[in-house]
Design goal:
The structure is a homodimer.
Chain A (H helix, E strand, L loop, with lengths): L15 H17 L9 H10 L1 H12 L11 H14 L4 E5 L6 E6 L6 E7 L18 E5 L3 E5 L3 H20 L7 E7 L9 H5 L2 H8 L4 E4 L10 E3 L1 E2 L1 E10 H4 L7 E2 L9 H10 L22 H13 L2 H8 L10 H10 L2 E10 L8 E2 L2 E10 L5 H14 L6 E8 L2 E2 L5 H12 L5 E3 L9 H4 L7 E4 L4 E2 L7 E6 L7 H15 L2
Parallel strand pairs in A: 3-6, 3-7, 7-18, 8-17
Antiparallel strand pairs in A: 1-2, 2-6, 4-5, 5-20, 9-16, 10-14, 10-15, 11-13, 12-14, 19-20
Helix pairs in contact in A: 2-5, 2-16, 3-5, 5-16, 10-12, 14-16
């Protein structure tokens, strides 16, 4: 899951005591209305969460000690087995490892005999790491004091995504061990390739028995620590799609220029693949770099009025100057005002250069004529576009412009994903967040990307999203952490995160 | 000195015995014509060269053990002192270290009381190296058998330029120790910054006493191992100029885009310095990458008939198919035939991309919008152009096209340099080469670059070139070597290289 780019305003959440009263009242109302769930003893569950705190924290630490990294072909099978065992211990009765052409997925069903079924999307893999860059060993998951934040657990995967996922599992332990009714049936899909772009998520999720189980659900959510340091939460209704690819110009494919790096003086008689790359890139965007000029590329649909209103509401609460300072950006594209810049962020597809690499890249210069140069590109896609169609348009554009020799090496990508604000999965989130004294913002779609399309696209066509209180930081970076004991009453610590899943599951059962 | 790009044909050199006879006859004729030099006993000098072989080889090994590397601020002062001591031991009576704003130069005069004075250009610095990449420790200068080549000395600086330079010094030792007359006065200028582009060569060479000493000379040559593996030699009448520079686009200088790498999803609202670099680069050359389109850039003067004839003669002896195979180039620019491709090589200025570097350059992708991207560029200059004028034209072009924020960071460069084929410095080379049974080719100008302009431009306006038999390879690369005992009678070993300097000095005295 890519990092969120949202900056939140401050609100005062109500106390834990208040929101438990609100939730208990809601559930009483639910029970008296003849709904399925027996009245749960929320205070008993909370007491169980507190009682199990050490065990739950230890479970997270043990999980972090076993990193599964698909890119390094490290611990994927043992990680899947570990995930399966954890699911079983948390009460999933049917647990299966599903093979794919890549790393295996873990499929599990907790049948509570409830009328409502909810899908849960986990990843058991983590991002690569270099221990030398960390201030605390990344697999030791030590508890560390972080001034102004609280006690955090520092380790690879702490927030992305083992911390929030372990909190969700701890919620299941607590509900069961407090002798309370499980409010919904759960279908768990845990993949092991999220950090390499989920290349086999379709194979896994569309496995007949997985798809059949999910088809009965009201939607799928991924546990996530959604709180910023101010406690505030933005509920996103989807995400742009993305294609990551390399454009490579080479003498070999071109049939001109050199087949290896040669002395730069030969430029006077030899063609240059690096110049060819520059010339091909030049055709992809307008002179300001901001409008896509790929022939036949889909245009973005206009923003809906509802989405425009969401953006207006959110931008009015976000500080433009803070954002500009955070990113070191003095002007948005075209000097757009804050709200229009956010509308552009939500609505526009992009062609971005992530990196340029060719020839000599060290300090100073080196007199070579490189035989190869590459641009690392990401395309962000909005609804109506697909990964495959975007790649096809790019390829046919290059061919039509005479650059058919430029390789288009796609390394990963997702289609865009959207969920309706009215979906129960979303409304239940808003309800829990408000019960916790928060004033959640809605956001049409994150500009980052995740493989939610596998749930929201046909044949499943389910709502999908992320949920969870709690806070963490440093996904993909050194010193990744997940908050365990919060110094700020507005921000949930570990037990608060666990209770947010308890509350969400009961809310989804309504 | 950049690597040569010439490929030589084969000819049969006459034997050493024959050429000694030829040289002795020439010198006898010279003496009888009333020239200054007493008749030298060339066989006595050759015997001394053989006798001093071990000492000379040891001197080179000791020199290689002390690398001076300006880029690493390593051993420059001690290297200059070492150079000064070697000059003194070789018979230079006046030896001085000349300070510059960079590394010191070594200036030395050997006053033989001769009517002819010859300048000699040395570099006492070497290129950086990584011992891990070498098959033999680069500072140990071991003698190693190289099949088909002979016994070579492997070490950093072996061929670039300590080997040839030490052979020149060994020639001076042998002439003196054989009791023979020194045929010419010598003015030595040894710089310590050649490998970083000679940034202070002007300061050193134009120091009043250095300039005054050189002004009396008939020209300046640099010792160099000019023989390919077939023994053949090309005499170059100069070199293109070069400017090495980086073009840098950054959010900071642009005042748009981010001041640090940010998440790539933000491309939809933030400008991209990487795209800006691509768009600016695009304006520098034609769509095929081969014609310079910098506004107001000087055009190349047409080739002279004499130069065209030299190129025709040389290309008729060089194998086009071999060259294409060597470089992995299936077609020259515009599918030019061999001779025209070489005319282009000699006559045309270039804008080459040495390297592209920006944002994420590792394996796979990374979802960043980079705050900075750079192109490493070299401009090759032909006569009529200067480094300063080329840089000024580039800067004013960028400013006029609205890219005034793109930094033009010049890291080094030389003006072009040319010497007339009729110069005594050149004719003496041809004479010695022919006396050695070789059939040297003339070449209008090398497409590589060296700081000869400091000698050939006003105020000195001297001929300048390179000379020396012998062979080596791997300049700037691992496993650099200089040939000590040759397996091929057509190629000079160490003593043969020494004798070539003996012969050249006597020839220059005629």
């Amino acid at each position: 899951m890519e990092a969120s780019c949202a900056v939140h305003g401050n609100v005062s959440p109500r106390s834990r005591r208040t929101r438990l009263r609100v939730l208990a009242a809601a559930i009483l109302a639910l029970a008296s209305a003849g709904s399925w769930a027996a009245t749960p003893d929320i205070e008993a569950i909370q007491a169980k969460v507190a009682e199990q705190h050490e065990t739950s924290v230890k479970r997270l630490q043990d999980w972090i000690a076993l990193p599964s990294i698909a890119a390094e072909d490290l611990n994927s099978r043992v990680g899947a087995q570990y995930m399966a065992d954890m699911a079983r211990e948390a009460g999933f009765g049917q647990v299966e490892i599903i093979e794919t052409d890549g790393k295996p997925g873990v499929f599990a069903v907790l049948d509570a005999g409830a009328p409502t079924t909810v899908g849960v999307y986990f990843m058991y893999d983590v991002k690569q790491f270099d221990p030398a860059e960390w201030s605390s060993p990344p697999l030791e998951a030590k508890l560390i004091e972080r001034p102004g934040v609280g006690t955090v657990m520092m380790g690879r995967g702490a927030v992305n995504q083992k911390g929030p996922q372990s909190a969700m599992l701890a919620a299941l332990h607590a509900i069961r061990d407090a002798g309370q009714p499980m409010p919904v049936n759960l279908v768990l899909v845990a993949e092991g390739e999220e950090e390499i772009g989920s290349p086999h998520i379709g194979q896994f999720v569309h496995h007949p028995k997985v798809r059949a189980a999910l088809a009965d659900s009201i939607g799928v959510f991924m546990p996530m620590a959604l709180q910023g340091l101010d406690g505030e939460v933005t509920v996103s209704l989807g995400a742009k799609g993305v294609v990551e690819l390399e454009l490579v110009a080479s003498g070999e494919k071109w049939g001109r220029g050199p087949a290896k790096d040669i002395h730069s003086s030969l430029k006077a008689m030899v063609d240059s693949p690096a110049w060819r790359l520059v010339k091909a890139l030049d055709t992809l965007v307008s002179d300001d770099g901001n409008t896509i000029t790929i022939d036949g590329y889909p245009t973005a649909p206009p923003l809906s009025e509802a989405h425009r209103r969401m953006i207006a509401a959110a931008t009015s609460r976000r500080d433009e100057a803070d954002m500009k300072k955070l990113f070191g950006v003095p002007h948005w594209i075209d000097d757009l005002p804050w709200q229009q810049a956010n509308e552009r962020l939500v609505s526009q597809p992009t062609v971005n250069i992530q990196g340029l690499v060719g020839g000599y890249t060290g300090p100073g210069g080196k007199t070579v004529l490189p035989h190869r140069a590459a641009a690392k590109i990401d395309l962000r896609l909005v609804p109506g576009m697909t990964r495959d169609a975007a790649v096809a348009a790019l390829k046919s554009h290059l061919a039509a412009r005479g650059y058919g020799d430029i390789e288009v090496n796609v390394t990963g990508g997702y289609d865009p994903t959207s969920t309706d604000a009215d979906a129960r999965l979303i409304q239940a989130q808003l309800s829990v967040l408000r019960d916790n004294g928060l004033d959640p913002l809605l956001w049409p779609r994150g500009a980052g990307s995740y493989p939610g399309f596998v749930f929201t696209d046909p044949p499943l066509s389910l709502p999908a999203g992320h949920f969870g209180l709690g806070h963490g930081s440093g996904a993909h970076a050194p010193d990744e952490y997940f908050l365990i004991e919060s110094a700020n009453p507005r921000v949930a610590g570990y037990d608060g995160a666990v209770m947010s899943y308890v509350e969400y599951l009961y809310e989804l059962a309504r």
